[in-house]
Amino acid sequence: MKFRVERDVLAEAVAWAARSLPARPPVPVLAGLLLAADEGKLSLSGFDYEVSARVETEADVEEPGTVLVSGRLLADISRSLPNRPVEISTDGVRVIVVCGSSRFTLPTLPVDEYPALPQMPTVSGTVPGEAFAAAVAQVATAAGRDDTLPVLTGVRVEIEGDRVTLAATDRYRFAVRDLMWKPEQEGLSAVALVPAKTLLDTAKSLSAGDVVSIALAGSGKGEGLIGFEGAGRRTTTRLLEGEFPKFRALFPTEFNSVATVPTPAFVEAVKRVSLVAERNTPVRLSFEQGVLTLEAGSGDDAQATERVEADLEGDDISIAFNPAYLLDGLAAIDAAVAQLSFTTSTKPALLSGKHAPDAEADEAYKYLIMPVRLSG
Questions:
Q1: What percent of the chain has pLDDT over 90?
Q2: Is 52 exposed, middle or buried (0-12, 13-18, 19+ CB in 10 A)?
Q3: Contact call for residues 141 and 59 (beta carbons, < 8 A)
Q4: Which strand ranges, in their side-by-side order, compose the sheet holding 102-107?
Q5: Phi and psi dihedrals of 298, rounded to 5?
């Protein structure tokens, strides 16, 4: 095998394909990156039995061939090379990387022991790359990180016709986002539970492309696969098993109080007040007409208080939240004005965004946050 490729092109492709390689692979070949050169194209692939990644780019191929090398080592080398064309060739069981006056000789891994990458399922539909990345980021912030509860570490993807609904929860907050897409067939209906970290990384890495193709295979459980493709990059991942919480009934539709607060001022106030909040202690919010009072700390501990302008419709209310969860939600709404809707101080509050004080709340994204019960 022998080919030439631009340094930046190689470094970007290797970094993307190697990003999901396991830090401690169960078998040595899974630490490898598969390079295949043929007819002006270079493809790089990685696989860990759960997630596969494949990227294709143009290259000047002199001798076609396939080779398996350490992905992380090749990524480190590619990133550090001078800004000149890179020539990669094989010499027996070694790979030679030459760039300017730099020369590296790398051992190869046995190609015949490398597992076959899963086939990309049939494309189910397409969605704009930037919109998809933004939607996934809004929802993934609420996904659980406890691997002993794997169902909660996923994002539920529901497809109904031309609408995709993404949902995630860690039991303390629930994020739901609706977005439109172009299905390949009318009346398409499907459900998948995708690992949140994989979905977030994939959506972010494909955001540069105009569109992302989404492909579903299997029953949606167990052996099911989901695939994503865009801008010459392709990822597949196994779906999670388990029953995701039925979330629609959790979102209240009637409220006793609705408050609106300028988001930047709200965020800064929460950050300042929570400086005195010990680990797992809440920030208290007291809403009255025209003002929101934030408080943290009590007794002999450090204490903080701050007041922010706010509009309130309905009854005065005092409620407490985990400040980290509240800040996650305020960052996710990505809006100039935050709207908090309450039933009572002991029931979940609904956070949504508004682009202006007199505008309607954005119904596409909802963030439900559980309050913290205050002693006394």
A1: 86
A2: buried
A3: no
A4: 60-63, 2-5, 86-91, 94-99, 102-107
A5: -160, 165
Classify residue 10: in a domain, yes or no. Answer: yes
Q: Which two tokens stand for residue 271?
A: 């950050």
**Number of structural domains in the chain:** 3
How many whole angstroms separate alpha carbon 162 and alpha carbon 182?
6
pLDDT tens for 285-321 read 999 999 999 999 887 889 999 999 999 999 999 999 9
Mapping DSSP onto H, E and C, the string for 133-162 reads: HHHHHHHHCCCCCCCCCHHHHEEEEEEECC
Q: How far is CA 354 from CA 120, 310, 316, 336, 357, in A?
A: 39, 14, 21, 6, 7
Say if CB 176 and CB 165 are below 8 A apart: yes
Q: Say if CB 178 and CB 163 are below 8 A apart.
A: yes
Give yes or no for a contact between 190 and 225, defined as CB atoms under 8 angstroms apart.
Answer: no
**CATH label of the domain that carries residue 18:** 3.10.150.10
Q: What domain range includes position 241?
A: 123-248
pTM: 0.91
Please tell me the chain's helix, strand, coil percentages from 3-state DSSP, rounded to the nearest 5. 20, 45, 35
Give the type of residue at 359: A
Which tokens sit at 6? Answer: 């631009």
Kindly state the tokens that stand for 225: 């696969």
* Residues 65 and 82 reside in one and the same domain: yes
The length of the chain in residues reads 376
> Confidence band (pLDDT; 50, 70, 90) for 209?
confident
* pLDDT tens by residue, 18-53: 988 988 899 999 999 999 999 999 999 999 999 999
Q: Which residue has the higher pLDDT, 376 or 102?
A: 102
